[in-house]
Amino acid sequence: MESLPFVARRLALTIFVLLVSFAVYAHNVSGQTSTLRQIRATGNKRFSEEQVAELTGLQSGTAVGREDLQAAADRLVGSGLFANVKYAFQTRTDGLVVTFSLEEAPRLPVYFDNFPWYADSELNDAIRGKLAFYDGTLPAAGTAVDEAAGALNALLAARGIAATLEHEVLANPIGDGDVQEFHLQGAGLKIASIEFGDPAVSSSKAIRVHLSEIIGTEYSRTKIDLFLTEQVRPVYLQQGKLHVQLGPPEVRLTGNPNQKLPQQIPVFVPIVAGPVYRWKEIRWNGNSALSDLTLTGLMGLRPGEIADGIAIEGGWDRVREEYGHRGRLDAKLDAVAKYDENAHTVSYDAHVQEGQAYRFGTMVVTGLSVTAERRLHESWLIAPGGVLDKAQFEDLLTKLETHKERVFGDLPVHYETVGHWLQADAAKGTVDILLDFK
């Protein structure tokens, strides 16, 4: 059995520890400070713990309080690099350990529009000199984007280039998704000419017609890349050259590189046409409402034919439309190309998620007179409970926008826009049509 003095000493020690813990807790709650000993991070994927610590602006060994920790969390969110930030701290006798729980924000590829004085590698290096974590991508907005812009402005100023730097999120001109585009406003540069690495492009009458639309206009890689994507690439895809490589556009100048650039910029576009591919086959899975034979027929290509890339895209569209005819509004199609580089053939594995077949529920109309609404309902041919044909819905919208007399006859109806929605109820398997005339 322990002696009374020993028990008393243990009780006294316990009370002392509790009092110290309470004092530290009160110390922090009251807005006072404690020494920061360590910064930890969880949820970080692209960033090291050291990089996160640097972004917080906190310094280990300095005195911090709750306001400092919240300000650090706000800085992380304000950078645009993190969609969500939470923090927790642990009190030790020698100070605080703070842990930031992070959800990283999506990043966009950086795209430099009109900087002909520099290679992309130079522009990327300038940003990396300011942002050590930079990997060619940035968030949609935030202080990280502003700091990147500051680094580019410093590079331009060193060369005496007077123009206003702007940045904007735009659709990727050469791929899917969006890009963070940096553009110079007021650079005053014009596209003097565009030369192609493949002479066949220059001899195409259709391409020459569209090329005249951008020659002499403001120099812009975005504009040139869009031209390549929309006008040049389809020519190669129709020829079965599915791996054609276009660009990137190059500015080829002669003379002293230290001299001021001319206002008229000649552009060269490298082209690697690649081989011609032929159609081999397509393998379907996940489909039941439509047979393999029906789906393959909708594609419209036969084995051995040139794999016309434009025709292939048209085939995917026809498949989606056929599901729309059958009320399968949620149908999804995922097709993966398989290339045989020896035989120069292409085949596809196509997975279909058909979804359920929706039936028409009701049509809710606002903004029309009673008579006009009645005629609108009379022009709609699908009865409640019938399978909703999406094509008929789209045909109705076209009539309302361009041929309203086909819906309302000689009845005078005045509106400028028609808001339209398909409101699906998955549980009931029905779709209501909502039309708002304004």
Q: What features would you highlight for this structure?
A:
alpha/beta, Ubiquitin-like (UB roll), 4-stranded mixed sheet, 438 residues
Helix-strand layout with pairing:
Layout: H1 4-29, E1 34-42, H2 49-56, E2 63-64, H3 66-78, E3 82-92, E4 95-104, E5 108-112, H4 120-130, E6 137-138, H5 143-158, E7 164-171, E8 178-185, E9 190-196, H6 199-202, H7 205-211, H8 221-238, E10 245-246, E11 250-251, E12 264-269, E13 271-272, E14 278-285, H9 292-299, H10 309-325, E15 332-340, E16 345-353, E17 359-366, H11 370-379, H12 390-402, H13 405-408, E18 418-425, E19 430-437
Parallel strand pairs: 1-4, 5-8, 9-12, 14-16, 17-19
Antiparallel strand pairs: 1-2, 3-4, 5-6, 7-8, 10-13, 11-12, 15-16, 18-19
Helix pairs in contact: 4-5
Q: Please, could you describe this protein's structure?
A:
It contains 13 helices and 19 strands. With 438 residues, it is α/β, with parallel strands linked by helices. The chain has four domains: 15-104, Roll (Ubiquitin-like (UB roll)); 106-187, Ubiquitin-like (UB roll); 278-353, Roll (Ubiquitin-like (UB roll)), CATH 3.10.20; 359-437, Ubiquitin-like (UB roll), CATH 3.10.20. The strands form six sheets. It has a four-stranded mixed sheet with strand order 2-1-4-3. A four-stranded mixed sheet has the order 6-5-8-7, with helices on one face. A hairpin with a 6-residue loop joins strand 7 (164-171) and strand 8 (178-185). Helix 4 crosses helix 5 (143-158). It is globular. It starts with a helix and ends with a strand.
